[in-house]
Amino acid sequence: MHLFCLHHAGGTTASFAGWRFDGMHVTKLAYRGRDFRSVGGAAAAMAERIASSQSGQLALYGHSMGAVLAFEAALRLQETGRVVHVFLAAARPPSGMYDAGAAAAAASSTLSERAREVLLEDLALLESYPGRLPAGQLEVPATVLYSSDDPVVTASESLRWADWCAQKPRLIDVAAGGHLFHVGNPKVRAIVAATLSAEAACDTHAAL
């Protein structure tokens, strides 16, 4: 199993520090909004990197903006049959309605000038994303993680991801986690580990 993690807007791979699992490779993918002309272009680059893995089983965990990129990358890879699970965390569904200005304003008072610059670059890319119609495009199993006290993405927004999934996704509330509930939270890592262990076991059984 090879798990690829995509961070939030303005973030870095450091938000996945400590993400190590027995019997699993973990790769933390970094991106900068300024390096791409579109979310589709960024997702295509991510998908190419993920597809180069030698593992027969791939999984994606995307947090906030990273979830949108994980979704788009998964759409490009799902026909390979190698993607076994996608985690979509702390993110609005891909309706194309992203207010980068409001998100940046909410965070500006707590960030350094450099961090704010990076955030704005990422959010500008996200704001250009046209989105997709809610037509159940994602065919692989998915888990939607959200926090009922997330000040950026409401629980009701997170639950709407089901309309973009061909099969009903698993919905998990990571209570009292805030927006970046994956940072240093053992509960999130336990969910990921248990889910992917089950997927690996199912795949092995099917092969037999």
List the helices and strands and how they pair.
Elements: E1 2-6, E2 25-29, H1 39-51, E3 58-63, H2 65-77, E4 83-89, H3 100-108, H4 113-127, E5 142-146, H5 155-159, E6 170-173, H6 186-207
Parallel strand pairs: 1-2, 1-3, 3-4, 4-5, 5-6
Helix pairs in contact: 1-2, 3-4
**Tally the helices: what do you get?**
6
Mean of residue pLDDT values: 89
Instruction: Report the principal-axis shape.
Output: globular
Q: Tell me the strand percentage band.
A: 15-25%
Using only C-alpha atoms, the radius of gyration works out to 16 Å
Spans of at least 5 consecutive residues with low confidence: 204-208
The total number of structural domains is 1
Using the coordinates above, name the CATH class: Alpha Beta
CATH topology: Rossmann fold
Main β sheet profile? 6 strands, parallel
Q: Please, could you describe this protein's structure?
A:
- With 208 residues, the chain is α/β, with parallel strands linked by helices.
- The chain has a single domain, classed as Rossmann fold (3-Layer(aba) Sandwich), CATH 3.40.50.
- Helix content is 37%, strand content 15%.
- The protein contains six helices and six strands; from the N terminus they run E-E-H-E-H-E-H-H-E-H-E-H.
- It has helices spanning 39-51, 65-77, 100-108, 113-127, 155-159, 186-207, and strands at 2-6, 25-29, 58-63, 83-89, 142-146, 170-173.
- Strands 2-1-3-4-5-6 form a six-stranded parallel sheet, sandwiched between helices.
- Helix 2 links the parallel strand 3 (58-63) and strand 4.
- The two termini are 18 Å apart.
- Mean pLDDT is 89; it is low at 204-208.
